[in-house]
Specification:
The protein is mostly helical. It contains four helices and no strands.
């Protein structure tokens, strides 16, 4: 899909549906949403559909997030090699200090 990561899509959908659920709830609580939609039945239906769609999107986002690697393997190996070279340099410096 043109190189777009499924994780990014799930994150965007989660943000959109989560935000709209909160906004609709606030508007519904204040009574503005019913005035915008026109009837209480339509307002409840829209809110329920939005909430029902939010549930699988949240699950999908959680699954995609759990499968997303936090670091690349090459980054881990590079950090490890830098750490080992620092320890080798420090131990060599201590050896020279002890000899003097």
């Amino acid at each position: 899909m043109l190189g777009i990561d499924k994780y990014i899509i799930s994150k965007i959908l989660f943000f959109i549906f989560g935000s709209t659920t909160v906004i609709i709830f606030f508007l519904f609580y204040t009574g503005v949403f019913v005035n915008i939609v026109g009837s209480i039945e339509a307002a409840i239906t829209i809110y329920c559909i939005n909430t029902v769609l939010l549930i699988p999107i949240t699950i999908w986002y959680a699954i995609e997030r759990s499968h997303k690697p936090k670091y690349k393997e090459s980054d881990i190996l590079e950090a490890y090699s830098e750490m080992m070279s620092r320890t080798d340099d420090e131990s060599a410096a201590k050896e020279t200090t002890k000899r003097q």
